[in-house]
Every structure is written in C-alpha cells, then in structure tokens.
C-alpha cells in the first residue's frame, strides 16, 4: 500500500525558468514523509523517540511548471531493518511522473543521542506499506 500526499505548487517554488526548483522537491518529499508519519505512524512512542533522515536521493524525470492542481507524492516502505527503514517516493500527477526518490530513515532516541530499534508498533505500521522499490 502507498500513502498519497497532495502537494500544492507554490509560486515561490519556481526557479528562473518557471519550473519547480530542484531543492523544492526535497521539501515536497519532507511534507509527504511528515504527513505519512502524522497520519499513519502514530505509535505511542515517547516524545524523545523519533526518526531521522540519513540518506535521500532524487531522480528528476520531467520539469514541473506552475500549476493550480496539486501534485501527488506517493510514499511507501521498501525495506525494514532493525533500526532503519527505506522509503520510496514518486512525484506525479494523473498523467506524468516527475520524479522518483529514495530515502533511509533511522529510528532515533533524541534523549540518548543514538539510534534505537524500530519498535514493534512502528514495524506493524511500516509492514502495511511495504512494497518493492520501482
């Protein structure tokens, strides 16, 4: 299963060529990741237990001009480890794929300042969104 986040293109997202700036795609991925976490990954962890991004890669497939229709950012899990998991993303609309991306997140204990194991509750949610990478 994939989580879908609808993301508006804002005027200040555009570069000098009138296309969404490449750095803005990372913001779109972050917005989708946070939406996924807030809607799906609420597991009762302590406030100091969260996740951190340790890697992200984006392949830009087509430019995105200014538009009033939102983009769709699809997010899913491709691997679950002991203390980390991999995400895949696709940024698209109904007719075109604009970007593909991957990321690695590590479960993190902010208070202890170190990685922690993925909790059983987190793993249960992540497994629902587990699909192969594109």
From TrEMBL:
Cite a single GO MF annotation: fatty acyl-CoA hydrolase activity
Which CDD domains does the UniProt record give?
A: 4HBT
For this protein, the record's Gene3D superfamilies field holds: Hotdog Thioesterase
Q: Which InterPro entries match?
A: 4-hydroxybenzoyl-CoA_TE (IPR050563), HotDog_dom_sf (IPR029069)
Q: What is this protein called?
A: Acyl-CoA thioesterase
List the lineage, top down: Bacteria, Bacillati, Actinomycetota, Actinomycetes, Jiangellales
């Amino acid at each position: 299963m994939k989580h879908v986040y609808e993301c508006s293109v804002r005027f200040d997202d555009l570069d000098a060529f009138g296309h969404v700036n490449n750095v803005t795609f990372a913001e779109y991925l972050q917005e989708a990741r946070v939406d996924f976490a807030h809607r799906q990954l609420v597991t009762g962890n302590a406030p100091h237990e969260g996740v951190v991004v340790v890697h992200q890669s984006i392949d830009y497939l087509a430019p995105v001009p200014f538009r009033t229709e939102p983009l769709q950012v699809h997010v899913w899990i491709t691997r679950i480890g002991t203390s980390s998991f991999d995400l895949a993303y696709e940024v698209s609309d109904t007719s075109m794929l604009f970007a593909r991306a991957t990321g690695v997140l590590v479960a993190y204990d902010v208070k202890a300042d170190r990685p922690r194991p993925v909790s059983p509750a987190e793993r249960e949610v992540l497994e629902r969104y587990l699909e192969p990478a594109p």
